Amino acid sequence: MIVTSNLSKSYGSKSVLNIADLNIPKGQSFGLVGNNGAGKTTYFSLLLDLIQPTTGYIKNNNIKVNESEDWKPFTSAFIDESFLIGYLTPEEYFYFIGELRGQNKADVDALVAQFEDFFHGEILNQKKYLRDLSKGNQKKAGIVAALIGNPEVIILDEPFANLDPTTQIRLKAIVKNLAEKQGITVLISSHDLLHVTDVCERIVVLEKGEVVKDLVTSEATLKELEAHFSGSETV
Amino acid sequence: MKLKHFLNLEWKQYFRSSYWQKSMALNILLVFFALYFVVMFLIVGVAIYPILKDQFPDQDPLFIVNSYIFYWIIVDVLMRFFFQKLPVMSVKPLLTLPVKRSKVVNYVLGKSAFSFFNFLPMFAIIPFGIMLLINDYPTVSVLVWVLTILCITLIINFLNFILESFSAETELSFLPVIAISGGLFALNYFNIISFTDLVAQAVNGVYNNPVLLLVPILILIALYVVNFKMLRKKLFLDSSLKSNVKEVNSSNLEWTRKFGDSAPFMQLDLRLIWRNKRPRSSVFILIIGLLYGLFFYPNPTYSEMPWIFGFVGIFVTGIFLINFGQFVPAWDSGYYKMLMSQNIQYKQYLKSKFNLMAFSVVVMLVLSIPYVYFGWNILLAHVAAAIYNIGVNTHVILLGGSFNRKKIDLNQRAAFNYQGTGAVQWLIGLPLMLLPLVIFGVSYWLTNFEIACLILALIGVVGIVFHQKLMKLIVDKYLASKYKMIDAFSQDS
């Protein structure tokens, strides 16, 4: 589904990302881990064509993202709060996103209704603007908005950060369901090794912009990741 | 020594802000303004004594000056209210550090005393004082007088912050201030209560009896204490964290459906305007724009010069267009990344802005119909100007928007907020306002009023006819600068 080829991004002489080859098949739940500055957000930004690659390209469903916009209808993302429109209520925001993705109000309502327990009664019918919600609740709204409109690729940057434990567990269930049952390609970045090994079939470790590990998740993965990160931190 | 640290922080904040680094031109302009005022005040300070002596040989120049202090106070309060802001300091990081709250407050207030607004009068007052000494006024009295004026300056300084803190909450805060100062001025002007005399007598009193200097000093101290208490109260984290959340009325704006593809964006824009302080103020500016014609039309000087009607028409019918349009797409800067990764086309996005602006021009034209009272030709000029606005200026301003690289924080206060203003906004004004003025003026001069209106309108019609082509051009321009805009909008200024 997603093909990365010779991709690099540098600012001046400083290279921040350099991925020679990375393929993510359809329906895979893909986890990206790495320390701060490893290039996770840079990779997602390139995937969403928010920044320009220095060399190489990413193909999303055979569409080069920096040349055509045709990947947009089947791709959705929640990177950070700047994806929210602060002066809308969550409902208005969902309808707005729905409208952009060709969904009518009933479609959006039906989808959002599935996430009632995820919202924990703190999002819908609160008569509050998104900007007045807490960070965690904003995140919930943003994640659910990314599920609107039957996307085939969903990109979530640090979805677990700022969420309370209950919501983290519910989110894991949601993400698993997306990949396993609905065949959606889900890309997640996280600092939380436990969550990411729970959820993702495959985990790639980035370090200083390069892929240093590419693992199929198994029993041993968490141990391996922990060893890797505790080892690399002492260097 | 905490003061040193504070000053160090300020210095870094100022020079490391991207605002400073990116808008050199604006800074240079401001420095020039400041220098200009300093020089003007110096000249006034030196020259006023001989001039008054020459014009009113039988009066004491000092008393004449004193009798004008009331006007100075009123003007100074107004100027400061609009232009001076309490120096801000990001206190949040300091709250958990071992710094006494009172120290922070004293620092902020103390710093405000060194504002340019307080120095400026001194450039006139001190030379004037020296002139007085040269002309054999008693030294002590002159010193006391200068100190009195300094006290008044500082009193205004601190009074202003009290006014501002009361008005910061609401939108139209400037109205009561204008109303009160206007009222005082009127009371004085119609001699109901002569504040001029009262103030003059007070200042003369201090001049004659130096002990009375205590009065302004006490007032000053009182105001300082009030300010101190108010600020200290605000210095707790919960006051900045707690935002008064109002219940939201949401309406679904179904009528925008008529606009087809761009309907979701129309809804978004309408909510943007209505729910955020700053864009909402561009709606209130409509009133000012609408009344702008009153400045010209009833005035016989201008009714002799019909070539200016075209310009007034552009301004009156285009006030919203100019005010709102100059910050496209910066209005959406907060969530621009999201828009760019969504399944949208620039065309629909820009089309919505275009519709909104064109619609506002029509509304303003209808509202300006009463100007017909001052002559039919005014209505004619307004219609022509409105067509020109829709056909040409909307496109020009959207095109200018593609050069926009400055983020806007929607929640900041509205009036006299220059955030997001850059060279683009200054430059775009030229083709927007001057071009139609020139077109109209030249064709009026070459032919007559009706033909000039016709030409202006025709150019507008050409713009409307080529609307699709022009929009395509503009969309290309936006696409070309997409990455730059995303990058610029995601930076904090």
From TrEMBL, chain A:
InterPro entries: AAA+_ATPase, ABC_transporter-like_ATP-bd, ABC_transporter-like_CS, ABC_Transporter_VariousFunc, P-loop_NTPase
Domain ABC transporter positions: 2-233
Transmembrane segments: none
The entry's keywords: ATP-binding, Nucleotide-binding, Transport
Pfam families: ABC_tran (PF00005)
GO molecular function term, any single one: ATP binding
Protein name: ABC transporter ATP-binding protein
Annotated organism of origin: Gaetbulibacter jejuensis
Automatic annotation (TrEMBL), chain B:
Pfam families in UniProt: DUF5687 (PF18940)
Transmembrane segments: 25-51, 63-83, 104-130, 142-162, 174-195, 207-226, 281-299, 305-331, 352-373, 379-403, 424-443, 449-467
Domain of life: Bacteria
Protein name: ABC transporter permease
InterPro entries named in the record: DUF5687
Keyword Transmembrane helix assigned: yes
Native source organism of the sequence: Meridianimaribacter flavus
Keywords for this protein: Membrane, Transmembrane, Transmembrane helix
Signal among keywords: no
